[in-house]
Prior knowledge:
The chain is an alpha+beta fold. The protein has helices spanning 4-22, 35-51, 54-81, 83-87, 113-129, 144-160, 162-174, 181-191, 195-202, 205-220, 242-254; strands at residues 93-96, 102-108, 132-138, 228-231, 234-237. The protein starts with a helix and ends with a helix.
Amino acid sequence: MQGKMPMLRTLSTAATLAAFVATPLAAFDVASMSEAERTAFRAEVRSYLMENPEVLLEAIRVLEQRQAAEAAAGDTALIAEHADAIFEDGYSWIGGNPEGDVTVVEFLDYRCGYCKRAFPEVKELLARDGNIRLVVKEFPILGDQSVLASRFAIAVKAVEGDEAYSKVHDNLMALRSDVTEAALTQMSDEMGLDTDAILFEMESPITETIIAKNRELAQILKINGTPSFVFEDQMLRGYVPLEGMQDLVAQIRGQ
């Protein structure tokens, strides 16, 4: 008989909790309980949770899933509202397949270690797939050297065009030394670019405006780190390995 008591108590508590969950909130008025009834109820709940802690873990998992779903829905709404600024701003460099069926937007900083880590994987994604349109958003957030690098890249695009930008982008991602005007001048000279025109363009209001617009957009999209990605209607804040990006592209195409 004594061995059955804990089981009976657990079953009784489970039934009480089940009744509590199933009962409409208006009908289950805790405030109407007497102090003794509230004390007894709390004791039963505590006892059940102590004997069945996995219930708490399950509840936490459900909460996390619900929060993730709500966050994803919020991101989707933000992306839809600002789609033109994200995908068709008219000034960001477009790589990969310009006519691709999936568009990936990357917010990056040339001084960001995780951006450098993601760089070859993004290139591999484009090379393996062949049907992805990549939009690069210059988003310098790691100090003056980051801003200098982005100004240089934007100026190269304005002066020399998309092909030169692509090469400079790759070079900046591979750069392991400090970003200085001397280093950028040397890079430009070695590539045979119009260095004087690029240095002039780096200080132009248009270059400043592009960076400001990207920062404003990132703030709207709740992006505060790099790399961050927009995959069609989904947001990824942070580094994502190649396999993860491939899986997401496959999911997008399967929708």
